[in-house]
Design brief:
The protein is mostly helical. The chain has one domain: Up-down Bundle (Methane Monooxygenase Hydroxylase, Chain G, domain 1), CATH 1.20.58. It is built from four helices and no strands. The chain is elongated and about 65 Å long. It starts with a helix and ends with a helix.
């Protein structure tokens, strides 16, 4: 595989990953909003959680399919001067930022769920 094919393959993969992480972040924001409004009723988020699992599975599959490309990139990146390399580096930064925003939102969802669970536990203990 030559450098151009490698970069084109990586660009395609990371465009997908960046898009999926962005979609995951948006989904997590919707879940968080639903949790805030639901007052502990989690039934409304079940379809969103299913979609989230599907997106995470797609990410895992895509990453598994392309592990070889990432290894080649690590071996060759210092030698590649094609402009695609600069685009790929920008896309890596964008994907990393998307992942961070998703993780930050997931932390908020986690805290909200813990709050709901603690509130329900306290309610059960008071009966």
């Amino acid at each position: 595989m030559d450098d151009i094919e490698l970069l084109d393959g990586l660009l395609a993969v990371y465009r997908d990953l960046s898009g999926w992480y962005g979609e995951l972040r948006e989904l997590s924001e919707k879940i968080l909003g639903r949790l805030v409004l639901s007052r502990g009723d989690l039934s409304g988020i079940v379809p969103m959680l299913k979609h989230k699992q599907e997106l995470l599975a797609a990410i895992e599959r895509r990453r598994g399919e392309t592990a070889g490309l990432e290894t080649l990139w690590q071996e060759r990146k210092q030698l590649i001067t094609d402009r695609r390399a600069a685009r790929f580096n920008l896309l890596l930064e964008e994907t990393s930022a998307q992942m961070k925003r998703f993780i930050d939102t997931e932390e908020q969802v986690k805290r909200r769920l813990e709050h709901i669970m603690n509130r329900e536990s306290a309610g059960d203990n008071g009966k």
